[in-house]
Design a protein that fits this description.
This protein is mainly α. It is built from twelve helices and no strands.
C-alpha cells in the first residue's frame, strides 16, 4: 500500500510539465516565493531592520521601492517578509494539519466515546468565529510568535479534523481494515498503514487550502496589530504601516497586499490541479 502511495505521488508531481497553464504559473510563483524566503539575506539590498534613509523616501536607484515610516528599505523588508510570513504560515499549517489530521483518523478508527468527545470539542471550537477568537486569545496571552503559532494551529486543526474524520469513516468500514483488526494489528498501525494511504489526496488538497487560510489569517492579524510584531518584517503589518501613502497616490502599500493575493491564488491553482491529477490515478 505504501509503495503504491509513493508511486501515485511521484506520478502526480511528475506530470507538472503536462499540467494546465494556470497550474504551471502557480508552480512558478510558488518556486519564486520559496527562493525569496530561502535566499532573503543574499537578495535583500539592506538588512531587515537597518535604518538606511529618511522617512517615506520616494522610489530611487538607492531605494528601488522607497523607505517606510522609520527609514528602512521597503524592498528589503518586502523580501524578508516573504521569509517571515510564509515560514510562519507553513509551520502553523503543518502543526494544524498533523494534529487535526491525526485526531480525525483516531476518531474515525476508534469510534464510540473517543469519536464523540473529540467531535464535540471540535464542534465547540468551530462554532466560534476563528479570527475573532484568535484576536481574543492573542490579546489575553500576548502576541508572541509561539502563541500565534499555537493558537492559529489549534483553531485551524478543527477544520482538518472534520475532513480527516469524514474521509476516514469511508475507509475504516472496508474489508482490508477489518482484516487488519482480526490479525491483531493495533490502532496506530491500522491508522498509519491502512487508513492514511487511502485518504492522502483530499488531505493533501486540504493542506494547500489550509495554508492559504492560515497565511491570510496571519496577515490579517498583523494588519490589525496583533500578529507578527515589529521590528520583524511582515506583509500584513507593512500594509498597515504604509496605508496612509494611498492618499497621496503612492502604490507602495499595494505591493505587500499584492504579494499576499498572488501567493494565495498560486497555491489554489496548484492544489486544484494536484487534486484533479491525484483523483484520476488508477491503482
Amino acid at each position: 500500500m505504501s509503495r503504491a502511495l509513493v508511486s501515485h505521488m511521484v506520478k502526480a508531481w511528475g506530470g507538472a510539465r503536462n499540467a494546465p497553464v494556470m497550474a504551471q504559473v502557480g508552480l512558478v510563483v510558488m518556486i519564486f516565493y520559496a527562493a525569496l524566503a530561502l535566499l532573503a539575506p543574499l537578495i535583500a539590498p539592506y538588512p531587515e531592520t537597518a535604518l538606511v534613509g529618511g522617512m517615506f523616501e520616494p522610489w530611487s536607484a538607492t531605494f528601488p521601492l522607497g523607505t517606510d515610516q522609520l527609514g528602512r528599505d521597503f524592498l528589503s523588508r518586502l523580501i524578508y517578509g516573504a521569509r517571515n510570513t510564509i515560514g510562519l504560515a507553513l509551520a502553523t499549517t503543518l502543526l494544524a494539519f498533523t494534529t487535526g489530521g491525526f485526531l480525525g483518523l483516531v476518531a474515525a478508527e476508534r469510534g464510540g466515546w473517543v469519536d464523540q468527545v473529540l467531535s464535540r470539542i471540535v464542534d465547540v471550537l468551530m462554532a466560534m468565529p476563528q479570527l475573532i477568537f484568535a484576536l481574543v486569545l492573542l490579546t489575553a496571552f500576548g502576541s508572541s510568535i509561539l502563541n500565534l503559532v499555537l493558537i492559529i494551529a489549534a483553531l485551524d486543526a478543527t477544520r482538518v479534523f472534520r475532513l480527516a474524520r469524514a474521509v476516514a469513516l469511508n475507509v475504516v468500514s472496508l474489508d482490508f481494515v477489518e482484516a487488519a483488526r482480526l490479525q491483531g494489528h493495533g490502532a496506530l498501525r491500522i491508522i498509519l498503514f491502512e487508513v492514511l494511504p487511502n485518504v492522502i489526496p483530499p488531505l493533501v488538497a486540504e493542506l494547500g487550502l489550509r495554508f492559504c487560510f492560515v497565511f491570510l489569517t496571519i496577515s490579517a492579524l498583523s494588519f490589525l496589530g496583533i500578529g507578527i510584531q515589529p521590528p520583524t518584517a511582515d506583509w500584513g503589518s507593512m500594509v498597515r504601516e504604509t496605508a496612509a501613502l494611498i492618499s497621496y497616490g503612492d502604490v507602495t502599500p499595494l505591493l505587500p497586499a499584492g504579494a499576499i493575493v498572488l501567493l494565495a491564488i498560486a497555491v489554489n491553482f496548484v492544489v486544484d490541479w494536484f487534486l484533479l491529477k491525484a483523483s484520476g490515478l488508477k491503482e
